[in-house]
Specification:
16 strands, 9 helices, six-stranded mixed sheet, Antithrombin, Chain I, domain 2, alpha+beta
Amino acid sequence: MKRTSLWKRGIGLLLVSALLAAAAAALAGCGTDIIPSGTAQLGNLTEGLTPNKVTVNVDMDEQSVLITDFALRLLRASRREGESTLVSPLSVLYALAMTANGAEGETKGQIESALGLRIEELNEYLYGYNVMLPQGWNSKIGIANSIWLNEAKQTSVKADFLQANVDYLRADVYRVPFDDKTCADINGWVKEATDGLMPNMLDEVSSEAIVYLINALVFESPWFEPYKPEQVEPGVFTTEDGVKRKASFMYSTEEEYFSDGVTVGFAKTFDRDYAFVALLPDEHLRMDEFLESLTGESLQDLLATSRRVKVNASLPKFSTESGTNLIEALSDMGISRLFDPAQAELGGIGPGGLYIDRVLHETYLTVDEYGCRAGASTSVSAILGVGPDGEPKTVYLDRPFVYMIVDAKYRVPLFIGTMMDPTVTPDAD
């Protein structure tokens, strides 16, 4: 699927959807629904679900370490050897949280064990993180959640489940017939939530499904200092198997350097609130070995102890996108009962027999030399502080590396990926 930028820039986009399907025995179930039935047209039906005031009592710094650890485990579980990988752990967490608010028993326990925190803590963290996220001077981030109920099934969806998702995740709720028009309606919602960058998430909507839970997350930003034409030159990227590839490299001098003995890296800022972080493993380490060496705590410590020093950096231009079902990856992380019709315990959502049928995860990211809308740049020289000192460092990303888009406050990866070959571009249709 070919996608074009509204303007030339570094841009990231992610979308996740979770489909809840029901066992046949549960399809005939009826009950009182807090969302009125009989609504055939698309409409936000949350008027009767006023968000309650939320108090955040969790330690955001402590939880950010756990979230970063989850990000690394998700990346490892999603990787295919030799291939570039991109995931958005934050988006996956929103989709999981919506589902977990209806989970019970051991199913809920598996989710909590995989995350390292209780569902109540996850709700508070995601609420607090969303409130904290700045729009930046030139950066734009959007997070949207929605719940789609099948009008035709006439099933009872529990009020507490919907209320929790409205309170903490600010989810929209829709009741629609799950017909051909519904597919267009959901894709339309996704298109609007992602500024038109992902217009066709779903090819079809199953008439047998009970509910769709969808999260959309979009990030876009110009570079704080766009690359000039003379800073872009051809070069050679060496893959993990030693294959030499011709690539286009962007050269710059950055001012934030990372090093811990097994990796070096740098941060390139979008603005004061967000940054692109790249980590280059030791040349003797394969990517799988490097990823296995990382934990949420060690990665957070690395990012927190960056040095202010000049970095002669190179970054290859690349574009990557993927679409995958995350069931296998999440199962490998210990979340398996959700996907088993005989074991899933989702009675907090509605009728018995509910289970997760698919967890669709789509990502898209492109990095190029541009990133500035005409007249939109703002001087931020006052926040740079004293100039960097020490001997200049060199970090050329001419072999496989890990990259992230992080916020400046908690350094949580909105996106995290591995770039194994920048010359492999997404297929266009």
